[in-house]
Write a structure and sequence with these properties.
- The complex is a heterodimer of chains A (about 80) and B (about 260).
- By secondary structure, chain A is mostly helical.
- Chain A has three helices and no strands.
- Chain A folds into two domains: about 1-40; about 45-75.
- The mean pLDDT of chain A is about 90.
- Chain B has helices at about 5-40, 50-55, 60-70, 90-95, 105-110, 125, 155, 195-200, 205-215, 230-235; strands at about 45-50, 85-90, 110-115, 135, 140-145, 165, 190, 220-225, 255.
- Chain B has a single domain, classed as Alpha-Beta Plaits (2-Layer Sandwich), CATH 3.30.70.
- By secondary structure, chain B is of the alpha+beta class.
- In chain B, strand 4 (about 135) and strand 5 (about 140-145) form a beta hairpin.
- The longest helix of chain B has about 35 residues, at about 5-40.
- Classes of the chains: A mainly alpha (about 80), B alpha+beta (about 260).
- The interface between A and B is medium-sized, with 10 and 17 residues.
């Protein structure tokens, strides 16, 4: 299945590169948070959870539902 | 005696490992026996804060300074990431139900000492997913920073804001030479422990001693299980207040207002 993902047009590779850039930025940000501490997320004494946690749980839900949507295509193929 | 190279290395490694654990084991044994000898025994530790006495010394922060110095609590530049064990808060925020629209501003804004209430029914303990905070048999709500995963559940659960999360590395913020008390790392929660390390050595909490040291004596600490203790006497003789009693947490820091 993976070999299909590794063949494609120039546009396909551009798309992959753009997405990979997003992943790289995210990973770099994560490393920075790991070294500096949670202070850089904008969380404070008064708001110890806030948007940071809300976004996390929201995106976990989005990712799980995306898997459920894609899964059907493979099952019924 | 003939010995192969491999078995010699193995033996040498084992010997080294054994030698390096010896001081650790020694320290552990020493710690437990010393603590057991003079430790203060209490059924239920509690504190009484005499507000009127405290107010006679306007901007005094002897207790706060003594505590934060001894426990390596950092002084961070960003107030949003502050770590506090004991500090002063405006009265209207400490006792919101004791303020009316007619309370004068000076009364509302008077600085009131706050710290962990060491509740009988601590919400922070109930929510902790790793049991890194727990209630001891003598009523102290204790904290193990090694077990803490930094989820901040307890910070959200505590109705008194007594818990602080290390949003950044606290070590650069420590004022002066660090003391013997273990320093913390970023990503763990910490709070007042009623100076368990001093109780184990038969001493009273540092804030209480600092307050007495400057001749004020607004803080009283003792065992509620002992009817002869100073806190028991104060609670018998006075009308005392507790923070947010309606929540059913049963705080054990009492205020003489």
């Amino acid at each position: 299945m993976l070999e299909k993902a590794l063949t494609g047009s120039r546009r396909w590779w551009t798309l992959l590169a753009v997405l990979a850039a997003f992943v790289a930025v995210g990973f770099a940000t994560y490393l920075r948070q790991l070294s500096v501490g949670l202070g850089i997320t904008g969380l404070t004494r008064d708001v110890p959870w806030g948007l940071y946690i809300a976004q996390l749980t929201f995106l976990v839900g989005v990712a799980a539902s995306a898997v459920m949507v894609v899964l059907r295509y493979y099952l019924h193929h | 005696m003939t010995m192969r190279r491999r078995s010699f290395l193995k033996l040498a490694g084992l010997g080294l490992a054994g030698a390096s654990t010896a001081p650790v084991a020694e320290a552990l044994v020493r710690g437990t026996t010393e603590a057991g000898k003079n430790a203060s025994q209490g059924k239920r530790w509690a504190m009484v804060i005499d507000e009127k006495k405290c107010l006679t010394r306007g901007g005094c922060d002897a207790c706060v300074k003594a505590c934060h110095r001894a426990h390596n609590v950092p002084a961070l530049a960003d107030p949003r990431h502050e770590v506090k064990w004991v500090w002063k808060e405006q009265f209207e925020n400490v006792f919101p139900d004791r303020v009316t629209p007619y309370t004068p501003a000076a009364m509302k804004e008077r600085p009131t000492l706050v710290l962990c209430n060491h509740c009988d029914n601590p919400p922070c303990v109930r929510v902790c997913p790793t049991q890194s905070t727990w209630k001891r048999a003598d009523g102290i709500v204790m904290m193990d920073m090694h077990r803490c995963i930094g989820c901040r559940y307890c910070v959200v659960a505590c109705p008194y804001g007594s818990r602080s999360f290390n949003f950044e590395d606290p070590r650069p913020g420590i004022q002066g030479e660090p003391t013997d008390y273990p320093t913390r790392t970023k990503g763990v929660v910490e709070k007042c422990t009623f100076c368990t390390e001093r109780l184990a050595a038969g001493q009273r909490p540092l804030c209480v001693e600092a307050c007495e040291g400057i001749g004020c004596g607004a803080l009283t600490f003792g065992d509620l299980g002992d009817p002869a203790s100073p806190v028991s006497a104060l609670l018998r003789a006075n009308d005392v207040a507790r923070r947010k009693p309606e929540l059913g947490t049963s705080p054990h820091v009492f205020y003489l207002l």
